[in-house]
Amino acid sequence: MAKLRRAVVGAAAVALAGAVGYTVGAYAATEGLGIGVVRRGPARPMVALTFDDGPDPEYTPRILEALAAAGANATFFMVGRQVAAAAAVARAVAAAGHDLGNHTYAHRHLWTLPPTASVAEVDRGAAAIANATGVSPRYFRPPWGTFNWAAYARAAQIGEARILWSVRPEGMIVAADAPRMAAVVVRKAHRGAIVNLHDHGGHASTPRETWLALPTMIAGLRDRGFQIVPLRILLDDPLPPRRPQAAQR
User: Fold this and answer.
1) How far apart are CA 150 and CA 115, in angstroms?
2) How far apart are alpha carbons 55 and 91 in whole angstroms?
3) Residues 79 and 54 sit within 8 Å (Cβ to Cβ)
4) What residue spans define the domains of the chain?
5) Is the pLDDT of residue 12 over 80?
6) What are the catalytic residues?
7) Please, which residues have CB within 8 angstroms of residue 12's CB and are 6 or more apart in sequence?
């Protein structure tokens, strides 16, 4: 019996160590050491605005209008199920010339998913975006910026660069109003900054406040001498968007 208990405890310890490596290990490598991920672009007077969790049927179109009025392009990290619910909005993002990124299919925390389910989240998110827009996403960002090893590897396998951020003006619990969001981004922006914003999700007020903040934010960044560019420009990635062999319209 004692031998059996030791075997069970040993097996549990091995399983726990594997789980920690699968989740916390990936976090330490990406968040702590920056291995295989992009947090910022080259040190040039450019800033990339990126939007997560959409498309949102109400606020993504307003954000597109604000960007168009300012003559700015951005990058939208889309959630597959949101794309399925608002395909016309996703197509409008692509048609306006913005870059597309994959933010998984259901926005589940990757630490809660085994490898097979994690790979499916990456693949289904990419497929939903491609099927709706005719354009395969070029970039991947995990929900809450948190990888596990399965999603980390799969993004690279399907040709999606792994993108985090260097500036974030908002929180998920405490609301940030538009003036504060604009002020934080303008103050913290640096050469090559990647700014994390939300056109859907986050705090309940975030999409509206993001939309309201954009004119002041963009004007303030330009006053500081920054160009507002999509990731493909920030990262010297000049290839045209990759198109799937058979996109479903």
Assistant:
1) 5
2) 10
3) yes
4) 46-234
5) no
6) 52, 198
7) none
Which residues are 228's β-sheet partners?
Answer: 47
The 10 Å Cβ neighbour count of residue 181 is: 24
Q: What are the C-alpha distances in Å from 53 to residues 108, 155, 189, 198, 199?
A: 11, 17, 22, 6, 7
Please count the residues of the chain.
Answer: 249
pTM of the model: 0.86
| Kind plus residue range of the DSSP H or E element containing 37 | none
Rounded distance between C-alpha atoms, residue 71 and residue 62, angstroms: 14
Question: Residue 232: which H helix or E strand, with range?
Answer: helix 231-234
Give 164's DSSP letter: -
CATH of region 46-234: 3.20.20.370
Q: Residues 56-105: pLDDT tens digits? A: 999 999 999 999 999 999 999 999 999 999 999 999 999 999 999 999 99
- The pLDDT tens digits for 126-145 are 999 999 999 999 999 999 99
